[in-house]
Design goal:
single chain; Rossmann fold; seven-stranded mixed sheet; 7 strands; 30% helix
């Protein structure tokens, strides 16, 4: 099992790995993002927790959905997100997802997207408890270990067991990842 990493770790990672600066179509996460887009409707107002380099945001904005705010604690990721989304650079912010203040000044939203984020954070519940009650939460978690994963999940039951106190999970999709050698669980839920 990996360990929780600082923003400096991610700053270095985002600078070194060129796939984070490519278009969303070229990302290894495109299949997760395709399903995420399919799950969204035109009237949802979206905030993204852990937006990384803004690739998913770019996809969401390109298809005309209402993406109003994205944040990440990596300043390098946010700089790339602004560059990838020049017409929407004002939507991306360097913020810490573990601080309540981050959530107090968000624009109005009804949907939160939090993909490939919770497995990196020891205190993942802090994020979920900060979200407004009744909002839709689309999140993903992996079934594989990595140096920066503090947890991963073998199956859907483990996800439900961990998060059912704070989220009413409606559905879980298993999406092949890394040429089918692993998978990502994409979850659709409501904040209780």
């Amino acid at each position: 099992m990996g360990v929780e990493r600082s923003s400096n770790y991610y700053n270095t990672l985002y600078s070194a790995i060129t796939s984070y600066s490519k278009t969303y179509i070229e990302s290894p996460y495109i299949y997760v993002w395709d399903k995420t887009i399919d799950m969204l409707s035109d009237d949802e107002v979206i905030v993204e927790v852990g937006c990384g380099t803004g690739q998913l945001a770019n996809y969401i904005l390109e298809v005309g959905l209402k993406y109003v705010y994205g944040f990440d604690f990596s300043s390098t990721a946010i700089a790339i997100a602004k560059k990838q989304n020049p017409n929407h650079a004002d939507l991306f912010h360097v913020k810490n997802a573990l601080l309540l203040d981050t959530y107090l000044n968000l624009p109005k939203y009804d949907t939160v997207i939090c993909l490939e984020t919770l497995e990196h954070i020891i205190e993942d519940f802090k994020i979920l408890w900060c979200l407004k009650k009744g909002c839709r939460v689309i999140f993903s978690v992996p079934d594989f270990d990595f140096e920066a994963h503090v947890r991963h999940f073998k199956n859907a039951k483990e996800i439900i067991t961990r998060y059912s106190n704070v989220l009413d999970i409606k559905s879980i999709y298993e999406i092949p990842h890394n040429n089918g050698n692993s998978k990502i669980f994409l979850c659709d839920s409501i904040r209780k």
